[in-house]
TrEMBL record:
Keywords: Pyridoxal phosphate, Transferase. GO terms for molecular function: cysteine synthase activity. SUPFAM superfamilies: Tryptophan synthase beta subunit-like PLP-dependent enzymes. It comes from the Bacteria. Its cofactor is pyridoxal 5'-phosphate. This is Cysteine synthase A. It is an enzyme of class 2 (transferase). Pfam families: PALP (PF00291). InterPro entries: Cys_Synth/Cystath_Beta-Synth, P-phosphate_BS, TrpB-like_PALP, TrpB-like_PALP_sf. Its EC number is 2.5.1.47.
Amino acid sequence: MPDRALPDSLALIGNTPLVGLAGPSEAAGCDIYGKCEFANPGGSVKDRAALSIVRDAEARGALKPGGTVVEGTAGNTGIGMALVANALGYRTIIVMPDNQSREKMQTLRALGAELRTVPPTKFADPSHFVHTSRRLAKKTPGAIWANQFDNTANRQAHIDGTAPELWDQLDGRIDGFTCAAGTGGTLAGVGLGLKARDADCTIALTDPHGAALYNYFACGELSSEGSSVAEGIGQGRITGNLEGAPVDTQFRVSDEDGLYWVGRLLSEEGLCLGLSSGINVAGAVALGRYLIAQGRAHPRVATILCDSGMRYLSTLYDADWLRAKGLPVFDWLERA
């Protein structure tokens, strides 16, 4: 095999590019970088967790040839899981809330996953997509439940992969990292991996409205305020992946602020992203300003660009949908 050729499709997961973000850097007064996780083969950061969870299940002997992977997900983990499973000869059954984007559902079906949708509900409800997927896995012969929220093989993917990649890409100098939490795997894993290299690296949670982690890290209480339309982020409990997460500070970001950066990054820098990425970038700007106020000289801050806006054409990039949600409409959609 030629030296520059990858051995198989799974080797495409990870080693994503890091890009400097001009507008956010100017707004923060420091250097802001985005990890381009949309460059993974499944189009999101969740490919990393999917591969790590499947490999861990194989190593433990829980997942055997011809087996099935069952997962409850807002969509991106399911997409990553379907691609990984296809490459390794497994079936996938995905359970997701029926209010997620149509593009995610269509993608899962196109990849050959068996898709089950359920109404969105609180985690305490037995019909929640996570509990539904757990029960489904239990009654499916030869199946494992991926359990991305509490399976720490999720965050291990970021300890072993994302964190050292960031460290190398920034030449061993990274002053702060922030992202939102869905499972908490990315925040905790990158945080643990970076802290192991530099204890002074500041790890910050960026939380959307409607999630409970901001108040938890700020005052020790799991309580939420407001709501968000962002998919795949926002958490109301301390998941297995969040336990021991080295969070130094926290920011809360509105959908409007996230959309502001989604709009600017597309119109000024040619990056078409989802709302979770916009919220992460808003958090990175806040972290950069925070570090400057703390006396850091021209800090470097990194965040996660989770997935492409192409996954949200029927929601985030649809003028009627935005108006129905009471959100601002991008100028170019108004002109369309």
